[in-house]
Amino acid sequence: MDIISLPIVFDKEKIDSRFRLVTIATQRAIELSKGSNLKIQSKYKKITTNAIIETLTGKIDFLTGEEAQAALQNAEKMDYRKWVTEKKKPLADITEIEKDLKIYLIEHEREAQEDTLNVFNAMNEITDFKPLDKTEEQSDQED
Questions:
Q1: pTM of the model
Q2: Which of 37, 64, 99, 128 gives 20 to 30 Å between its CA and that of 14?
């Protein structure tokens, strides 16, 4: 089984420390584990190994320094609740659909009850069910 040769050599201009390399590779490994596609052709099967190779080959874009801080501040300023409610606005028409569905279900339930009652009445007419007298019950038990 092939493994990445140690020590790992990387471009010091792009990645300034091993800590940054590990941090970037970790974030990429998480993305890969959630189903993201590989950006390279790799013979390795492990997600972590592929993440490290992608990071070392420069296929992963990342921010450092002031750019990273600015991006983080923009992300913190973004009101996710507002964004989610904006995305849900087209769903406001669902209340109309729900009302129509409730009306349909009520009508369907009434029809089902009527059908059940009709079947029950028809069965009573066919069988001509009459309760037995006590004397008939006793004679049946004696036999």
A1: 0.47
A2: 37
